[in-house]
Amino acid sequence: RAQTMSARGGLGKDGPRLAAFGVGVVVTLFVFSLYRADVPQKFQVHITSGLSPQKTWVTDTWGRGILFSTAVSKMHHSKKSDFQLVQVFESPDLGRVLMLDEFLQTSSADEAGYHEMIAHVALSFKRDTPPKVDGPWANALVIGGGDGGSAREILRHPHVKSVILCEIDPAVIQAATDYLPTLWAHPFLEDTPLHEDPRLTVMNVDAIKYLEKANAEGKKFDLIIVDASDPIGPGIALYRSQFYKLLHDSLNPGGAVAVQGGSFVYLKLVFSAVYHGLKAHFPVVKPINCVTQLYPGGIWNLIIATTGDDPTIVDPEIVRAIRTPPKSYLKWYTAESHGASFVLPPIAQTVLKMTPPTLEELEKDAADWSIFGQPKGGKRV
């Protein structure tokens, strides 16, 4: 999910075996060769990851040997930008789906479970020393997140003064504006696009360079959301210790960051790397769970880090002040789910106790599972 290309692929195991996840959505398990002769013909249209030759299925990886597929009812948009192939299609069960370089990013059916939790948990905890000002005071930065979902959720808070959405690829912003109306939506006005909120500023620049410049000029933030891509190629920069230090140095006292943190089930090394990377520079670091249909396993992890406050303690007044359109409501976040999201199972705690991976190990692991499901010869796009 992010401002640079994602990196996912997939193969299969002991198959064929299918588990139906609703209309047009399946998880497919196969083994050995991508072109195994005894795989039934009806399954072969989506054995490889990416868009099928018939353009009727899209397949993404859920891990080594596990493929997630969704049917394509209609391709709404397809454009090659200077950075990646940007596409939006219709899925029978997932609604509008954003895809970058044929890797699934977000969908209208499942995005709230991710965007509500990454924004509201980091904005709604009780601060030991709340700002003594009247009116909006919080300044936020979103790194990546060109679909608009994170910015939309931040702007539901009346105490937010400004949001800078730093997405390197303008084609992602344009695709969201034109084809993802439920994501690129005003936080509390019906039938109004996100950019009509005057507190939002969109910048198509390299986020790290922008943050370095802002920090050098003394500009600070109260919230930074990092909608990080996978740790391959340019995306590895978002996992370096220097970046986590830059995040810390760019916050006001009482500020917080919320970082996409992989999964303790399928992306253990990402989960560990983000947690320990933040832990080296922040006094308080807490992982949370969120739910998303589109990402491996359905359970996904975000990492919240603060300058000292305990993010598990919710401020009910802040939650009550969250605004939505008159006929809408938050689907996942409540004052009760705030605290509950921090409760991780023992298996997740075990992952965090392991020695964190080096950048080389992290990148190699991502490269290893990303090649599963790709056609012989490598790159799809």
Which keywords apply here?
381 residues; seven-stranded mixed beta sheet; 24% helix; disordered C terminus
Summarize the structure.
The chain is an alpha+beta fold and 381 residues long.
Q: Work out the helix count.
A: 10
User: What is the H/E string?
Assistant: EEEEEEEEEHEHEHEHEHEHEEHHHH
User: Rounded to an integer, what's the Rg over CA atoms?
Assistant: 20 Å
Distance between the termini: 17 Å
Q: Taking strands numbered 1, 2, ... along the chain, how are they ordered across the largest sheet?
A: 12-11-10-13-14-16-15
Question: How many DSSP-defined strands?
Answer: 16
By secondary-structure content and strand pairing, the structural class works out as alpha+beta
The fraction of residues in strands falls at 25-35%
Give your account of this protein's structure.
By secondary structure, the protein is α+β, with helices and mostly antiparallel strands. Helix content is 24%, strand content 26%. A hairpin with a 4-residue loop joins β1 (17-20) and β2. α4 crosses α5 (241-249). The protein is globular. It starts with 16 loop residues before the first strand and ends in an 11-residue tail after the last helix. The relative contact order is 0.16. Mean pLDDT is 87; it is low at 1-22, 27-40, 42-46 and 376-381.
